[in-house]
Amino acid sequence: MLRRFLGNPKVGIGLAIIGLFTLVALLGKPFAAEIMGRTPQSIFPEAMGASPSWTHPLGTTSSGQDVFTWMLYGTYNSMFVGFASAIIASAIGIAMGTAAGFLGGAVDRLLNGIILIFQNLPSFPVLIIAATFWREMPLLVVSVLIGLFEWTGGARRIRAQALSLRGRDFTTALRTIGESKLRIVFVEVMPHLFGILSPIFLTLIAAGVGMQASMAMLGIGNAAEPSWGLIINYAFGMNALFRGMWWWFVPPGLCLALLGFATTMVNFGLDEITNPTLSTRRMTLMRRFLKQNRRITPRADASTTPTGAVS
Amino acid sequence: MTTSATSTSPASAAPALDETPSRGRRRVPPNLIFLAKRAVTYLAVFLVSVVLNFVLPRLMPNDPAQSMIRDIYDKTGQRPSEYQMSIIHNMYGDPNASIWEQFWNYLVQLAHLDLGRSIMYYPMKVTDLIVQALPWTVYLGLVSTLLGWLIGTYLGARLGWRPGRLLDTIVTPFAMFFSSIPPFWLGLLLVWYLSYSKGLFPAQGAVNQRVRPAELTNLDWVLSIAYHSLLPLVCLIVVGFTGWLFSMRNMMITTVNEDYVHLARAKGLTPERVRNAYAARNALLPNVTGLAMSMGGVLMAVVLAEAVFIYPGLGGLIGASTAVRDYPLMQALLLIVIVLSLIFNFIADSVYVLLDPRTREGS
User: Fold this and answer.
1) 8 Å CB contact of B319 and A258
2) What letter does residue B30 receive in the DSSP assignment?
3) In terms of CA atoms, which chain A residue is nearest residue B46?
4) Radius of gyration over alpha carbons of chain B, in Å?
């Protein structure tokens, strides 16, 4: 089963990129601090606005900070927001989705209303309002806020899944032998939800990172906690564009794009696995087969098709 | 038998079914009920956002009224004037008044469309600032969405017609990558390379201020706007067309295997005709309805792109007002953004119901 998933090139490549980012996030900070002996705050006055070199692999900012160190710390912070917001959003999504799908009736209607409201509430503006009033908003708060607005998609899909699981024989059987509802949900149903939850979770990570980057681009966030978005915002504010200091603003954006690309790949791959009609490999094989077939059997004559006369 | 191809399109199937009188009469109300339900939802969302707009500043650790006074002091070096203090009182209420009184006053002001005065552009009214900025954002948003939709849908139809072919294997991964690029970052790259390095395009602004008079009849002025908006539009389109491409491609892949497409092929029609008149025509529906639906979401991408290109639209205002913490302007802007996206979503829902009878079953 696992081989079937990882065997799909899109899923494999996508997961590899996400894994790499996670690894850099985990190891980057201690690497910069312990081995290179640099923090985002350290300043190199002899190399102000220097282009990439061996001592500064990604060059320095106009005030002499090492961009590579910033990127290592930024990867940690961005991925932290991604994972934290995804965990919060999935937790709310699972709770709301299973409650709505399993309890049904009035609870379902009420939760559905809440889901609809949150789904239509544009999250970004509300996040900005919150952030404007909270100066130097800590990353954990940013993650919680993002998580609070991103759970609706997951909740809807989990609700649908829970609804279908409720009608299955094994849950009915458990109920007839007197198993408690809670136990059925936690022990028997939850494992079935992980299948649909994992792609949602990956998408949520990328969405959280992107959302945080967009907020940071508008200057929201703590300057002591560099993230990909904040590095771009800082470069923009310090006129890196006009000075042509591409090493300052290209890498963080590239990381953002790559992370999004990886999740898109995984989702496309999973789509292909679950819905074989979308698989391009299968389509190519089928067309080759049809082409060979056409050579063997003569082309269908319009007048002899089973549908009868064709205009 | 040609009707078999067209009648599978749900829009044209509906009237045929409505001819039986008993069903026809029962079929009209669900439409209205669906829309009414949605309208209630949107009303609820609007109320929630109004309440959030009131509650959030009061939940935050810093007292906004205090920090507003401090901001004014920081910027002007003077204590806020009597008039400014009265505005702050209007915005955040008398601190001694009960929360319900404050909320009532806030609602009364909203009902009068009185959103206070900006701190940054004091004493400009916030509503006037927004009215000036709105046309630019609407222009960027509409043009980029429509062009992105056309490009994406056309390419998607081409790719989905023969998935796995050379064009598909080249274009689709590129589109996947484009779809993940943050629009504001692409904007930065364009400004850096095309504006500053090559000097081909203006790096900021929406129009050359020296071109007069600023009227739609003045061709020079219109051309200057088009020239200035080229980079923001390119950046929004490159990122935006991909969503349409994917949905169109996937719909095409499923449509291509439908019986009526096989029939059309068997009839010996030219591939172009089968593709455009049979497969693409029926695969198009989700993209048509999605177009209206996306208008609300596009707003935020436009806002960020505007911040990069220092475009005089809502995005520029949001960026500037967050930087100097112009609270009255911020709150008004965000309320406007929410209302705009709600309006667009409601239009989308109405269009959806009109075009796709299947939604009624879902409601």
Assistant:
1) no
2) H
3) A121
4) 26
